[in-house]
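Data card: per-record layout.
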Amino acid sequence: MASEMKKVDVVIVGFGWAGAIMAKELTEAGLNVLALERGPHRDTYPDGSYPQSIDELTYNIRKKLFQDLSKSTVTIRHNASQTAVPYRQLAAFLPGTGTGGAGLHWSGVHFRVDPTELRMRSHYEERYGKKFIPEGMTIQDFGVTYDELEPFFDKAEKVFGTSGSAWSINGKIVGKAQGGNPFAPDRSDKFPLPAQKRTYSAQLFAQAAESVGYHPYDLPSANTSGPYTNTYGAQMGPCNFCGYCSGYACYMYSKASPNVNILPALRQEPKFELRNNAYVLRVNLTDDKKRATGVTYVDAQGREVEQPADLVILSAFQFHNVHLMLLSGIGKPYNPITNEGTVGRNFAYQNISTLKALFDKNTTTNPFIGAGGAGVGVDDFNADNFDHGPHGFVGGSPFWVNQAGTKPISGLPTPTGTPNWGASGKRPSPILIRTMCLWMLTARISLIVLTIWISIPTTKMHMANRCCG
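The structure for this 469-residue chain is written out next.
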């Protein structure tokens, strides 16, 4: 028998970016808001405190901030004739868990949507005719325009502390000499912070892109380029390019997350409550299934709890929202055979391809320096910035150099087939031995040079400082 809690105005399921934003907006509107997060409590301390926050084994290998697939996962099949099997190994698909959700472990690349993508079907039918889109292709308009969303993009960037270079503001071009993107839609205001510094690899990419006529620009980054206080009074520190962004809680408080940018303000709200380790089982509905009356969840002690509410918001990861809707009898499930139904239809996930470039021995860079959102991109082949007519497809993609930072252990070059961790990964190979010997020799030479430098008389040291700035 489930115990029943006191009724609230709003219950929010999932406390990532969407849940945190909705909680702040609704408490400001005067409503009592309860957020239920199935994962553990996470905060700037201890999860974002140095040095434990850059534990590569805990976060990069054991994936502490991600969903534990041994407890809860999704099933995968490539067509309706296959048997669905559970997804048990994280790769590119990385749903979060705990306070902040995926907003705590993301990298920080903070693009706006292109206006074309919000009305894709209408746009291409207008440009190429109705027969250009094949029959059965399910692309459609979103029903909302970029101009309608723009004020909210601007508000979000001010909350996130986004760094970037604007191209045009209220119709006036301002970004020709500032790293702006000439294909970017118009903005109502500048970015809260200037763009982050370009790594050497990004500088090389920008030079190469310009040399062949493309238009490189600074990636919009939710990693701060300087100290910042957001519109909620939350303070952020300047990014130091340590490279520990994706998969980690930022110890500099310079990567935007619900934990850094919104939760401190919500703590001041007497109308807000966050309950962690609350695993929602279903949305409770009226008998006619037209209105939600609350949710039922299991708490940390394994007790079933019923939480009444006037408004229920599902703000978890897309798969979890669909799962709850199916369990609760909300909407019509999508049937891939008959092409009917809405719930679960047209799930889309990010696709990305990477490549590596080999440079001359005299071209060197430091791959350990990096930030999750920093980089230089090119939009010449994104959205509808080129003629699709001869190619028979719609859409496009940016391409960029985003040096996010190589980690000390996983970034160590080893022969093909060498395990990343464990006893077998520690067995030395000839290539590894030679590499380590070279590193040790370099370090010894550097130490000798440093010793000689320290022995320089003080007067000469002062002269050298003045010469070198």
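Known properties of this structure: Residues 429-468 form one domain. The two ends are 73 Å apart (CA to CA).

See the next section for split statistics.
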